[in-house]
Specification:
Chain A: Keywords: Dioxygenase, Oxidoreductase. The complex is a heterodimer of chains A (279) and B (326). Chain A is an alpha/beta fold. Chain A has one domain (11-278): Protocatechuate 4,5-dioxygenase, Chain B, CATH 3.40.830.10. Chain A has helices at 30-48, 100-112, 129-138, 157-174, 205-219, 223-237, 244-251; strands spanning 11-17, 53-63, 67-70, 74-80, 91-97, 117-120, 145-152, 178-183, 260-267, 270-278. In chain A, a hairpin with a 2-residue loop joins strand 9 and strand 10 (270-278). In chain A, helix 6 packs antiparallel against helix 7. Chain B has a single domain, classed as Protocatechuate 4,5-dioxygenase, Chain B. Chain B has helices at 13-20, 46-52, 66-82, 131-143, 160-169, 194-211, 246-260, 264-278, 286-294, and strands at 35-41, 86-96, 100-103, 109-113, 122-126, 148-151, 177-183, 214-219, 301-309, 312-320. Classes of the chains: A alpha/beta (279), B alpha/beta (326).
């Protein structure tokens, strides 16, 4: 369990949210609506705590070489999801404003920690579904800026944790108050057929047991234990990207107390949760 | 539907097909028979496309990975000689979480920035889909028990693996295409259902034969798939390019030896073991799909080249069902 008891003045809180676009469905399953409501509530908490920028790592922007930091000042366009394109929630318009000063400083801090940080600024860059979804639910009015880092699937989790530490240092350096956001699922046994929303349930009972065990530990404030179980969880319940996005949050050094699990539900057979840590 | 061109596993009917139509001195006058003409293993690291400096791709390079690119050059000439109606491609980076999807957009076009390698691939693509065949493959796969979907939304960005493999096979883009997704779980890198990929391959063959198309089937996978997690300053600096480790290399060579010797039946058995030992990208199923479409033919595999890209093993391979007939 973390021994730190104080958080940085630049830390406004942290959240873990799912990245499946079903949360935006016009006719959502009750489970999907509950998760969306949970994410909106978590966003209110971040904004209420004075967050100015959402700092996001999404498992759907996965990379394999180094770490990419998005530094394009404005990201605007339409994302058509390559799996869910036929559903109303599969097409998402977005207009995101990057906190460039924070992102640049973050990249510098990552490099100072001995890691590779590639600054990403390309027209037509495809922002992933998870980032768009999280931004829309956490910040429906679009009042916050955003900073994003990719999720390197080949890097060790200690490197992912370093990204979290680096962004807090960067926020302190540029005087920004940030909400940290991990966009990730939990267990990931996707239902392999086209279902109606109301049919949705976590596909494997043992996976749901794992999800609830993990969430219970987070609610007890025992993030370290969760990270120790991470590889086993990944093996036995196909945890989304081996739950490395949680290592990002923990690496910030700001998860000092018990988490509030706002919601847990099925998302096309996978486990989805909304979890909040106060600033 | 005719089964004339169906090649049962390992029975060498590919030889009968070619030889029945030709006397030994009739090379160059091969009749243009419908069906699957050949299969290729066509790896898709964007580095290979980047190194070619085509006008469609924004980044510029100083080259690199020449041996693999020369193999593609050779392969392109052979594809041209095959005179196919369509290239059917299965590639692992159009990841679909639910079911096997087939691109049925008549004229996909757009600008694809690759989120993993945006510094290497920012490509303006435009090609033509053989929509009739695309729909037939989806329908046949559905009839064969697979979960499928016909993708008709022209807003879906075409992925880098599809672009890279198709560009390297046919940079003129003047052969119609059918693009298949890889049904995988993007959040957990489990082995795809190779059994389903086998069925999908058979469905593909049935659809091609039912429409009388003359087709090349291309499975786009790398082999051993451990690689570096950091990049050197210049991507094409070949002084940093080598196999990830000896174990990965040895397993790739064992794999390729079976291809060279035409021992496809044994190769089929080795694929899962090779995946376990090397994290081979064949776990995405493209190779299994392709060889299943061919009918797992014995005796005709060719390895045109092997090389590494950021440490991963990549081979350009050909199974020419009409070899000797042209």
């Amino acid at each position: 369990m973390s021994s730190r008891t104080e958080t940085s003045p630049s830390f406004a809180g942290a959240v873990l949210v799912p990245g499946m676009p079903q949360l935006l469905a016009e006719r959502p399953a009750p489970a999907w609506a509950g998760l969306a409501d949970g994410a909106r509530a978590a966003g209110e908490r971040l904004r209420g705590a004075g967050a100015e920028t959402l700092v996001v790592i999404s498992t759907q922007w996965f990379t394999v070489l180094g770490h990419q930091v998005q530094v394009d000042e404005r990201l605007t366009g339409t994302r058509v999801d390559e799996n869910w394109y036929d559903f109303d929630y599969g097409t998402m318009h977005y207009d995101l404003h990057t906190d460039v000063a924070l992102a640049e400083q973050w990249a510098t801090e990552i490099e100072s920690a001995g890691l590779e940080a590639r600054r990403t600024r390309y027209e037509h860059f495809p922002v992933d579904t998870g980032v768009i979804l999280a931004n829309r639910l956490l910040d429906p009015q679009g009042g916050l800026s955003i900073a994003q880092v990719s999720c390197n699937l080949y890097a060790g989790v200690e490197d992912i944790a370093t990204l979290g530490r680096a962004v807090v240092r960067a926020a302190e350096s540029v005087g920004r108050r940030v909400g940290l956001v991990a966009v990730t699922g939990l267990s990931s046994a996707l239902t392999q057929r086209w279902i109606e929303p109301e049919e949705d349930r976590v596909e494997e009972p043992t996976y749901e047991e794992w999800d609830r065990r993990i969430l219970g530990l987070l609610a007890d404030g025992d993030v370290d234990q969760v990270l120790q179980l991470r590889e086993q969880y990944a093996r036995e319940a196909q945890a989304d990207s081996q739950l490395r996005a949680l290592a990002f949050l923990q690496g910030s050094g700001q998860l000092v107390g018990a988490a509030d699990v706002l919601e847990y539900a099925a998302l096309w057979g996978t486990g989805g949760a909304v979890v909040h840590w106060p600033g | 539907m005719s089964n004339v061109f169906r090649v049962p596993v390992g029975d060498r009917t590919w030889q009968r097909r070619g030889q029945s139509a030709h006397s030994p001195d009739a090379q160059g006058d091969a009749p243009r028979l419908p069906g699957i003409v050949a299969g290729v293993l066509a790896p898709h690291p964007p580095h290979l496309l980047y190194a070619e400096n085509p006008p469609q791709n924004e980044p510029r390079s100083e080259g690199g990975w020449e041996v693999l690119r020369w193999a593609y050059e050779d392969l392109r000439q052979r594809i041209r000689a095959m005179d196919v109606d369509v290239i059917v491609l299965h590639a692992p980076h159009w990841i679909t979480m639910v079911g096997h999807h087939v691109n049925c957009v008549p004229n996909p076009r757009g600008f694809s920035v690759e989120p993993i390698f945006p510094h290497l691939l920012r490509y303006e693509y435009a090609f033509h889909t053989d929509v009739e065949l695309a729909e037939a493959i989806a329908d046949q796969a559905h009839d064969d028990g697979l979960v499928t979907r016909k993708m008709r939304n022209d807003g879906v960005r075409v992925d880098y693996a599809t672009i890279t493999a198709l560009h390297l096979l046919n940079p003129d883009w003047d052969i119609p295409v059918v693009s298949l997704s890889a049904n995988n779980n993007p959040y957990f890198y489990s082995t795809s259902s190779l059994d389903q990929m086998h069925v999908l391959g058979e469905s593909t063959r049935k659809a091609i034969e039912s429409l009388g198309r003359r087709a090349l089937v291309a499975g786009s996978n790398s082999l051993s798939h451990l690689h570096w997690d950091r990049e050197q300053g210049l991507p094409e600096d070949m002084t940093y390019e080598h196999a990830y480790n000896h174990h990965q290399y040895r397993w790739d060579m064992r794999f390729l030896e079976l291809i060279r010797q035409g021992r496809t039946r044994e190769l089929r058995d080795l694929i899962p073991e090779h995946i376990d030992e090397t994290e081979s990208e064949t776990k995405a199923g493209s190779l299994t799909w392709m060889l299943s479409a061919l009918g797992w033919p014995e005796g005709i595999g060719e390895v045109l080249a092997y090389g590494t890209v950021i440490g991963t093993g990549n081979a350009v391979c050909l199974w020419d069902l009409e070899k000797g007939a042209r």
